[in-house]
Specification:
By secondary structure, the protein is mainly β. Helix content is 0%, strand content 67%. It contains no helices and 11 strands. The protein has a 10-stranded antiparallel beta barrel with strand order 1-2-3-5-6-7-8-9-10-11. It starts with 43 loop residues before the first strand and ends with a strand.
């Protein structure tokens, strides 16, 4: 069989030339071993990206409402392995560092260091509307996640080290826009979350709300590597029964990186 490749696809009206196959043809002079040099994995992807974004902390404490905000930067590592073409497991870890400064209120300190991190372990099902893997995909997934925060401790202002963890439920999808370019988006909630207060700044939690949105594009740079860029929005809000009654973390991050197939 002879195969011809070019940078154009066949369209209605094109002429296609067929040649009779000669079974006596000798291809012994062809070096097919070079194919291994271009072979790439098909078991999953690993994505490494740089993060840069705004971070806001809002509290309702014994000293009144206080708000700190600033610019944080860091790294995110994500991985996905395909058990079959429909079932997958994935994980995510990110860490950012920086400082936030007073935006409103009268906190005891005008600034604080902040180093939020995220850890997720997930698994799910991919629905393929057109029946093949490289077409549109819709993913339904769940698992466990944890958001950690590390402000400088100030019990009167409602600042300290704490984290939110629990079961994550999410839905996402991606669709090809054109050859070599895909659009992706996902949304997550944490309906059964627990709040851990390392510095005992707050009392028992009355309610917890946790949401995450992610949207971006993937560009196929080569068979084994893709370039990614996107925006993720994270919101974690808690209410308490004590004098320090409210705490909210809000993040809007830009991410850019590379995705490698294995």
């Amino acid at each position: 069989i002879k195969i011809y490749n070019n940078d154009k696809k066949a369209i209605t009206g094109d002429w296609i030339k067929l040649e009779k196959f000669d079974p006596k043809s000798n291809y012994s002079d062809k070096n097919f071993s070079k194919f291994e040099d271009h072979k790439y994995g098909k078991l999953g992807d690993v994505n490494i990206s740089f993060l840069l974004g705004s971070h806001t902390v809002t509290t309702k404490a014994s000293t009144g409402r206080n708000k700190l905000s600033g610019l944080l930067y860091g790294l995110k590592i994500e991985g996905e392995t395909w058990i079959t073409r429909n079932y997958f497991v994935s994980g995510e870890f990110s860490k950012k560092i920086g400082s936030v400064e007073k935006s409103s209120g009268s906190p005891s300190s005008d600034s604080s260091s902040q180093g939020p991190s995220t850890l997720k372990i997930l698994g799910g099902f991919k629905y393929l509307p057109m029946g093949y893997f490289y077409g549109p995909q819709v993913s339904f997934y769940g698992g466990w996640g944890k958001y950690s925060y590390s402000l400088d401790e100030s019990s009167t202002d409602g600042f300290g080290e704490n984290d939110i963890s629990g079961i994550i439920l999410g839905v996402g999808g991606n669709i090809p826009l054109k050859k070599g370019l895909r659009l992706y988006a996902s949304g997550e909630i944490m309906p059964f979350a627990d709040f851990n207060d390392e510095d005992n700044v707050f009392g028992g939690s009355k309610s917890i709300s946790s949401t995450a949105l992610d949207i971006g594009v993937i560009y196929y740079w080569s068979p084994a590597m893709k370039l990614t860029a996107g925006i993720d929005i994270i919101s974690n809000a808690m209410r308490f029964s004590g004098a320090n009654s409210e705490l909210k973390y809000s993040e809007t991050n830009f991410n850019a990186g590379a995705q490698f197939s294995f």
